[in-house]
Specification:
This protein is an all-alpha fold and about 525 residues long. It contains 26 helices and two strands. The protein has helices spanning about 1-5, 10-15, 25-40, 45-55, 70-80, 85-95, 100, 110-130, 135-165, 170-175, 175-185, 200-205, 210-220, 230-260, 265-270, 270-280, 285-290, 295, 300-310, 325-330, 335-355, 360-380, 385-450, 450-470, 475-490, 495-510, and strands at about 60-65, 80-85. It has a two-stranded parallel ribbon. Strand 1 (about 60-65), helix 5 and strand 2 (about 80-85) form a beta-alpha-beta unit. The longest helix has about 60 residues, at about 385-450. It comes from Sphenodon punctatus. Belongs to the NOP5/NOP56 family. This is Nucleolar protein 56.
Length: about 525
């Protein structure tokens, strides 16, 4: 009945009723909820919705959830019995189909846009926070390293064959490809080789006797003459091979540093190149950590394994781990035993690297010591240490290393914060200076732009304000100063007028007497 009513909105609404709907507050909140559901974690928003609207009687309530992981999380944390299969899938399909009609104010177009945006954000976040994203660099590096080895060998053989027409004796003296290409580029025409170039050859060969042997062989060589154009082409090709060889060395250093960051224990145990090949063959460090020791032992020898199973022959004892030094050092009868033991330790190291928070090579060094002790036990019979004791020592050392790394990170963080604070202060000071300069410029421009009429109006306004407020101290001082100035500026009285005044005073005094 549910399947028939899913497509018909009338029938579906008679079965399903919307009780509560809680929209996401933002796109970030929606992405966090989607990530939590994909990981099988009960998000706080979902918990709040369920606790608010579900009935208090948990035993009688059955909750239908389409995802089994989130259903298990709800059942474990909230105590409601959850159902994930059967009718629940059809009901959720109907809710998705008629969701825009169930929720008021939501159209099908806006719902599809929101779904598309969330889908893009979720995919972007998954690509960004990919667990295997660091492993990809190691996988690409080791693949490129193997390809470079093949290419350098092929090109070096081509240089040997090409330059061998002119100087065939050089092949026996300089057997290494890189050295041969450098000598071919340095010597050029063997007839022009003299004792002046002996020091340069010694630097390349790192042996005075070999350099002298090359000089002697060039004088009595059976090679054919070669034109200058051919020599230029040989030198150019040799230069390319030399540059490829130097790039290979840089790539190996890069791989070594990357392995020490991603899988320090595995690289300390079995070496950077073999460890990188194991990760590359497994697909990622996580996949390698999931493999049992028996799979790691024959990893890389799948063809031999299936051929042995098909023909009912002996199965291979080792795969990629054969390139480690331990199996080569073991005796013929102990190769299978040491490869099994080494595969066991490689599995432990890969799991430690994959799931530890602070990467450290302490466990790898301890596991390597155990393999060395096991080799010595096979050869001499000396009993190795117990695994429990070794791991206790490793845990103590690893905790010390982790504490030291945390201290360094905290120091770096403090320095970064101080630097940011100084930068912000400098920016704030510069902004304040800019604002002050701009204010001064605007006031200056305003004063310059003022017309004489405006200036007169301003003066009148100031005078009116002074009259309204009354004379203050400054005004009294100004009046006193102005009166003094008037006295000084007044003309002096003539001497005759002074005499008349004195006479008048004398007469007045005589009358009084």
């Amino acid at each position: 009945m549910v399947e028939d009513s899913v497509l018909n909105i009338g029938k579906f609404l008679s079965i399903v009723k919307l009780v509560a709907f809680s929209p996401f507050k933002s796109a970030q909140s929606a992405l966090e909820n989607a990530n939590a559901i994909s990981e099988g974690i009960l998000h706080e928003d979902l918990r709040l919705l369920l606790e608010t609207y579900l009935p208090a009687k948990k035993k009688k309530t059955v909750l239908g959830i389409s995802d089994a992981k989130i259903g298990a999380a709800v059942q474990e944390e909230l105590g409601y019995s959850c159902q994930t299969g059967g009718v629940v899938a059809e009901v959720t399909r109907g809710i998705r189909l008629h969701f825009h009609t169930l929720v008021k104010g939501l159209t099908a177009q806006s719902a599809s846009k929101a779904q598309l945006g969330l889908g893009h954000s979720y995919s972007r976040a998954k690509v960004k926070f990919n667990v295997n994203r660091v492993d990809n660099m190691i996988i690409q590096s080791i693949s490129l390293l193997d390809q470079l080895d093949k290419d350098i060998n092929t090109f070096s053989m081509r240089v040997r064959e090409w330059y061998g027409y002119h100087f065939p004796e050089l092949i026996k003296i300089a057997s290494e490809n890189y050295t041969y290409c450098r000598l071919a580029k340095f010597i050029g025409n063997r007839k022009e080789l003299s004792e002046e170039k002996l020091e340069g050859m010694e630097e390349i060969v790192m042996d005075g006797a070999k350099a002298q042997a090359i000089l002697d062989a060039s004088r009595s060589s059976m090679g054919m003459d070669i034109s200058p154009i051919d020599l230029i082409n040989i030198a150019s090709f040799s230069r390319r091979v030399i540059s490829l060889s130097e790039y290979r060395k840089e790539l190996q250093e890069y791989l070594r540093s990357k392995m020490s960051q991603v899988a320090p224990s595995l690289s300390a145990l079995i070496g950077e190149v073999v460890g990188a090949r194991l990760i590359s063959h497994a697909g990622s460090l996580t996949n390698l950590a999931k493999y049992p020791a028996s799979t790691v032992q024959i990893l890389g020898a799948e063809k031999a394994l299936f051929r042995a199973l098909k023909t009912r022959g002996n199965t291979p004892k080792y795969g990629l781990i054969f390139h480690s030094t331990f199996i080569g050092r073991a005796g013929a009868k102990n190769k299978g035993r040491i490869s099994r033991y080494l595969a066991n330790k490689c599995t432990i190291a890969s799991r430690i690297d994959c799931f530890s928070e602070v990467p450290t090579s302490v466990f790898g060094d301890k596991l390597r010591e155990q393999v060395e002790e096991r080799l010595a036990f096979y050869e001499t019979g000396e009993p190795p240490r117990k695994k429990v004791d070794v791991m206790k020592e490793a845990v103590v050392e690893a905790s010390e290393v982790a504490a030291e790394i945390k201290r360094k990170l905290e120091k770096k963080e403090k320095k970064r914060r101080k630097r940011e604070k100084k930068q912000l202060e400098a920016l704030a000071a510069a902004a304040a200076e800019e604002t002050e300069d701009s204010v001064l410029e605007t006031t200056m421009e305003a004063e310059e732009n003022e017309t004489p009429a405006k200036k007169k109006k301003k003066r009148k306004r100031q005078q009116q304000e002074e009259e309204e407020t009354g004379p203050d101290e400054n005004g009294l001082i100004d009046e006193a100063l102005s009166s003094k100035k008037k006295k000084k500026l007044a003309p002096a009285e003539p001497p005759q007028a002074e005499k008349k005044k004195k006479k008048k005073k004398v007469k007045v005094e005589a009358e009084d007497d």
